[in-house]
Amino acid sequence: MKLLGLKTFYRYLRIWRKIFRINLVNIMMYRANFLLNIVDSVLWFVITLLFFKSIYLYTDSIQGWDINSILLLVGTSELIKSLVFTLFIENLPYISKLVNKGELDGLLLKPVNSQFLVSLRRIDFGNLGNILPSLFLVIYALTKLDIVVDFNFFLYLILIIFSTILAYSIWMSVMTLSIWFTKVEGLHELFLGAMTLTRYPSSIFKGVGRLIFLFIIPIVLVGNVPASILLNIPQQINVLLFISLTTMYFLFSVFFWRFALKFYNSASA
Fold first, then answer.
1. Which of 38, 229, 241, 254 is the most buried (most CB within 10 A)?
2. What is the pTM of this model?
3. Domain residues of the chain, as ranges?
4. Backbone angles phi, psi at 96, to 5 degrees
């Protein structure tokens, strides 16, 4: 995307508001599917909680993280996952379909940034089902940990946004490979699997796994950095470095998409 001024930002915000309204109308037409998606999201949320609860039946702490700290991390990661899936789960996995069927041509001809369209043209409201339970879990954990809501909570909310952008940037970069490789479903599933790592403390990762998931493809930081701010747990990557890293990955996704389009063979060619 072009880093233009405020006028361009408001233009794309208006476009997204129209996209939001169109998707909202579609949801009203298929309410049963919407409700089933919410139930599915909440069910997986409950299963995740039961999984960690069962682990802490046999131990009081994992790498310095007690049950309430873990609940805060799980609530944070589930909140971020809900935002990421709501915005992108109906878009990014279908880039390969757009390429294979030549439907990307239509998007490239529109007077709107192509990455914006392939990323945000659809919204999956069903994944919003986890947001309220996630917020409740975060508040519950904060209460149990006697953590006072102060400036750190404001910083926490900002980092939630940057974590969402980081997860998007990694996902977008992976799916951009569709321009060259027509079958990237395996990579897509790999990313979805990697998203589950956001709910685990970064301190449990050692060796090659730590190098990959904290520094090369820093998906573990998505949940850990915001949660650590509230817990006052020092991370190897501080807030400013995390924001810089997120910005770098986002810019990489932008330039990588532009670079890949140079190799795109139009269906009309």
1. 229
2. 0.90
3. 6-261
4. -60, -35
